[in-house]
């Protein structure tokens, strides 16, 4: 809670306002607050008409819809559901015969700096051939396909090809473990995995294919019939005969035409797993029609995308940001985009700035964690400071994934944006499909650290536990009161969990609960996100459940008796993972504690992935519990932050362990 309190305090002191410059406003799609307000009004007064007009104008339908919103089975909302379309056709085919067809769709920069690019016309050929290759493997409409790929043109092609044949993809981030992959394959009932032999990051060659093999070997993956392997490097890999095929093998002789398969608007385009309050990740299911509509519209509204723009979203395709703002949105908008394989700090921490100069990037979209780490790097080494590169091509900057602290915002504004570029601090989630609360570059006066106002048609509010609206200035829970086209449709295979997680009974069962705390400023009613209100942590903009990490720790059954995980604020990563562990043997100290902590970190990396490694691990003979046996997490949060314990500990069974747990290793 004190984390939220700190943020609320900084809202109250933050009084710098940056109105849009004439340059940003002139020619913008939504120019000025009057234009924004008019759209909001239109959505409020004629909700269905508003969305219907947008969907007709922005998407190509093979069969037009006649129903806009079906609310007969709340909260299983259905949008445009008797309409039919194809997502890939809306990204590629729609540009053929227009000036966009010969435009560069993707400029790819590899980890080692090599650049290649592909036009819309050629991308369509690549996607069509790959779609035919998938068909030749017996993969078709409704099948689920796992994609475990590096950031490459091939990764985007794989996603688009699945969409083209109506197969539902589920991309798993390349940093996740064999175990995580195994769980996702089983939960999705996937028939195939698309992967690469290796991925290149930061000058290192890291395995992917062998992790797929390990994941499948863990058992329960009988549904997998095919593993397709992109040979990203020349390094050898192990082939499982009868199951594995290379891209080259399946692409051989494939027709360059593949008619897009029309699917219903509600057909699941993809499932993307994300962390929730329990140990098991949730398969967030997205639709085709509503999702594609929002991917395109937010490119136009939030980024005000123009034909001459070079768009660069640094997110990996393994996350929702890489879905909406790499694989789908920019292509639907007919934009030129940069896709980057590597990491921001290799071969030096000026790589991003160098790439902006080199590719003349005009819209740059990244995460606060990246910005904070590059600030730190620039502070200690002048040579990687953005001032060393020509960033004058930039027009709009974006931030996503976690709250951006005002200091980082100001640095980004001055040193990257040259005090000229609006910063769109976009709030959204895997579940929302695209931006929901964000400034508009040509309209919204910016306040550092605030995601400002909801997009037109998004009925966001801040309420108490019963769903009652709270006044500006009062912190509460962020909700969205009406459905919107790109919202989550279901948790794959678990409709009950879907209802329980997002549409609480106490609020009437039809209000979307975001899981974040928020407060609106007293003067402008601007939203500021104060952090998750559930057991989800945000580490470097990546979502992880505390229960997920706890389950991983206690799965080390020979060593761990009990574990509790909490988050604590971290200057660089936003939040850091702090684990309190009780071992099955006596409490270790000194070097032994260090060594066991290192062992547990490696274990968690193997169970989930390196991003889930706890930063702090503390050992105790017990955990602080009430007499009824409940772990007092509030106390653990204070200890993790190094705060003095001021809470009432009279209900605590064993107060002496607080001292033990306060000791770091
Ligand atoms: C957080 C990422 C503050 C929030 C697109 C949310 C943010 C979670 C912002 C979703 C922002 C995302 N300001 N917090 N601009 N954007 N968040 O599903 O806690 O990976 O619930 O989607 O990130 O993370 P997810």
Automatic annotation (TrEMBL):
Q: Does the keyword Ligase apply?
A: yes
Q: Which residues bind Mg(2+)?
A: 554, 560
Binding positions (CoA): 201-204, 321, 540
Q: Do you know which CDD domains this protein is assigned to?
A: ACS
Query: What is this enzyme's EC?
Result: 6.2.1.1
Q: Which reaction does it catalyse?
A: acetate + ATP + CoA = acetyl-CoA + AMP + diphosphate
Domain AMP-binding enzyme C-terminal, chain residue ranges per copy: 548-630
The chain's coiled-coil residues are none
* Domain of life of the organism encoding this protein: Bacteria
* Keyword terms: Acetylation, ATP-binding, Ligase, Magnesium, Metal-binding, Nucleotide-binding
- InterPro entries associated with the record: Ac_CoA_lig, ACAS_N, AMP-bd_C, AMP-bd_C_sf, AMP-binding_CS, AMP-dep_synth/lig_dom, ANL_N_sf
Molecular function as annotated in GO: acetate-CoA ligase activity
Boundaries of each Acetyl-coenzyme A synthetase N-terminal domain copy?
36-91
Q: Which cofactor does it need?
A: Mg(2+)
Question: Residues in domain AMP-dependent synthetase/ligase?
Answer: 102-484
Post-translational modification remark: Acetylated. Deacetylation by the SIR2-homolog deacetylase activates the enzyme.
Give binding positions for ATP. 401-403, 425-430, 516, 532, 543
Q: Which residues carry this modification: N6-acetyllysine?
A: 630
| Cited PANTHER family | ACETYL-COENZYME A SYNTHETASE (PTHR24095), ACETYL-COENZYME A SYNTHETASE 1 (PTHR24095:SF14)
Q: Which family does it belong to?
A: Belongs to the ATP-dependent AMP-binding enzyme family.
Entries under NCBIfam families matching the protein: Ac_CoA_lig_AcsA, PRK00174.1
What does it do?
Catalyzes the conversion of acetate into acetyl-CoA (AcCoA), an essential intermediate at the junction of anabolic and catabolic pathways. AcsA undergoes a two-step reaction. In the first half reaction, AcsA combines acetate with ATP to form acetyl-adenylate (AcAMP) intermediate. In the second half reaction, it can then transfer the acetyl group from AcAMP to the sulfhydryl group of CoA, forming the product AcCoA.
Report the protein name in the record.
Acetyl-coenzyme A synthetase
Q: What is the source species?
A: Variovorax dokdonensis
Q: What is the lineage of its organism?
A: Bacteria, Pseudomonadati, Pseudomonadota, Betaproteobacteria, Burkholderiales
